[in-house]
Amino acid sequence: MKQKKLLSLGVTFLLALSQLFAQKQSATLTLKSGDWFETGIQITSVAHTFDYNFNVRYELSNKMPNGNLVFKVSFERMQLKYADAKNIWFGYDSYYPPYLENRKKKLTKQIYEITADSHGKISKLKSLSTAQKINFSLISVKTRSSGPKAEFTPDSLFPTAHLKQISETIISSLLVGKDLAKTLALSNSTGGDKITSAVLKLASFKLPKNALIKGNIANLPKIDSLYEINHELFRFNKDGSFSANVLVGLNSRSRWIFGQFDEYKTFSILLEPLDTLIVKADALNFDNSLSFAGNAAAKASLSKDLVSVFNHQWVNESNYRSKSLKEFLSFQKQGQNEFDGILNKYADRVSSEILNYCRTDFKYVQAGTKLMYLSHYRNDIKPNTSFDEFPKGFFLSIDTLPVAMSGLEGGLYYGAYLRWLLSYKQTKLGMINANQYGFFADYATAMASFDGYPLYFSIYESLRKELHKSEVESTERLKNYYEDFINNCGDTTFTNRVKEEWTQARLWFPGNPSPVKKLLLQDGSTLDLAKFKGKPLVLIVNYNNPDVLKSYIDLIKKQNRSQAHFVIAQSLASAEKSTIDQQLRDLPNVTYVELAKDLSKQNNINLYYQQTKVFTFTPDFKVISSYLIDEYPNIEKVIKEPIVDHQAIQELIKNAIDSGVMTKEQKASLLKTIGWSICSALLTAVVIFSVYRARIAGLKKKTLLKNKIKDLEIKAIRSQMNPHFMFNALNSIQSLINNNQYKEANVYLEKFSLLMRRVLNNSEKTFVTLSDELDAITLYCELEQLRFNFKFEIEVSPQVNTQLMEIPGMIIQPLVENSILHGLAQKGDTGRLVIHISCDQRYLKIVIKDNGTGLKENIVNGNKSFGLKLVRERLILLNAGTSVGELHLSSNLGENENGVTAVLTIPID
After folding, report:
1. Is 156 helix (H, G, I), strand (E, B) or coil?
2. Which class is 721-907 in CATH?
3. Per-residue pLDDT tens digits for 575-617
4. What pTM did the predictor assign?
5. Under CATH, what is the fold of the domain 212-295?
6. Which of 78, 319, 836, 886 could potentially form a cystine with 847 if both were Cys, beta carbons 3.0 to 4.6 Å apart?
7. Which of 497, 498, 532, 496 is nearest to 514 (CA)?
């Protein structure tokens, strides 16, 4: 692709703050450090030869004294598409980059630092990190001529000059409150017509809404007081009227819904910023009475008219899956004609972008329907039919339909189509029954067939399905695949869910305490599983028809009631009329319970409909295993002939029983061990008692001697510390005199004499009051202020009594001296030193924090600091019993923070 620069772009900013400022109120926005907002920026060509989308996050990292704002600007996501001269499309999505096995870390983001004044005018923009070069992949149907494409850097596609201009407009509009429905011209050097738009998407503060849905629902039942738009709840007025301001992006799908389960009323629409939709309907005849007005009415009407076509083509109400091939193809052709007729009716009423979105969505509907028909045809109508037996061109619409970067990520039909497509590819490539080999077959097929979102979506679904089993063998085999996925995928919607499933699965590793402690029952009570401790426990949770448990009855009867207990928990959400439950209740070694209807509230039991899970536990209630019996394709067949792996279940039960039973050899070994242990314990007790009395007197003498030696050692270290401090202070006075600062030298000498008098008065004391120590530190800091002009403050928590609490004298001063000389000396009046004193029941905590030049390696190790060496030696001598004093130095790791934090912990009585 020949790189083109942006020329005189017409940039439409749809941040849509006009509603917020329409009342002429104060429009300024005050940001604080840590505030952030995310903007979607789209750059497209008028000729539709490329489409670049950037999710750009602005985070305020610093508010400077002069009022300037420093933002960290990161490209959270880049979705880039372009067409070459042959109209072959290539794309790149940083959420779903080329998949690299054994990737050890995530991709680097493109990050800048922007400095703007209080009006949003940008004075500085610099790069903090550069993302990897972008390697575009083919997203059209593969052709022989499509080879690898050149790599590009993000700033070659989105130059920093344009980032500056766009960012300036966004920031100033937020801060000053401009009406942002306007056009901005960007300067360039070469030709090309392009359109750029931007919209606020997320923020740490409340964003202004940019679209409005209002209207009236006649005959609204009293029970329906609430309605929902995109998972946000709103309330109807008593007369059925409503009005909701919502936040939307560019052509984002919104769903409006109200009513009770199974009787809800809904419609969906592609909303854009500044859209207004007026809705009228009668709750008694919602679908037929629904009408729209406002500037978004045509889009809403289009969505409404397409619903019936989409549902008819997707849902099997017409039993299209049982039709002959000829009838099925006729059925799809009729659906295409109906769809085209509706779109033609709206050709001049909605944008081409909306029409193209609908066309793409319908292609996935028909392709998905064809794959569902194909599966049913080959399994039920004509089993094992070869693909070659299908009419010529039957698979053409599937094989030529692009799936990467469709713009429909997260869509219902698109996601379902990808699931069926993976099965189709697996069958076509390997000529095996789809999903026969689970995750590893799915993974291999996906890696061979997909790129971008379809690849990540397929791996995500397969990973979750396998982790859902919570079986130790499968979980361990997935470890490398799990780590690869986390390090490759930039979509946190995927990675967070997979991490959650991974953590959940690992709870069920053998030997772990049971993740399930209690079961919530239908009557609101709970069953505490710990009551069954003492013998092996088998827990069977059934989220299927109770009749599938029939096969377990004989297995349970074969077990000795004294060897294991069974808890069978039936989910009422799936319960149907059955006689099996009573048969199970009558068994002496079974506790049969009915679970609360909402299975999601059962902690750490994750089951889907038509699934059963068998858990086994040791007598002390630790995990042995978990085993999933997956959903069945035909529930009626299951009722007649339940499909249970008897051998696997029997093995699980046997392992549970074996965990609580000892062999004869184990019993003999245990008795032998107990006997020797008792003899050894008695002998040891006699020896200890005789030695104890002989040593106790000597220990008392030694303790007195050690305490006297320790006191002398502390005084010796104090005698070293005081000259060390005096040497540094005299050095400071000499420096002032050498620089002809005689007045400052006199002041310094006066304060120094006060400090020395205080130090000498305390020189014979091992401990001084905290107030005396802090007074000395204050004098010392005032002395050093004359040289280095830094600022300092001492903070004492209210619970600290400085008059009563005693600490080793002159133990804080070396740390303060270290911060000043090694950290703040070069900072001048921007230097800052904070000393914070707090305590708990056993320790006094002293934190010395500066914003100096940072921590040097020799300071960390204490190799070059004599003062720090003396502090550490004193702490060692003062340590007693379990109360241990510590000194810890660390670099400040906060955002835009420099300097060192020293934490001194001193044991107190």
Report:
1. helix
2. alpha beta
3. 556 677 788 888 888 899 888 887 777 888 877 778 888 888 9
4. 0.68
5. Immunoglobulin-like (2.60.40)
6. 836
7. 532
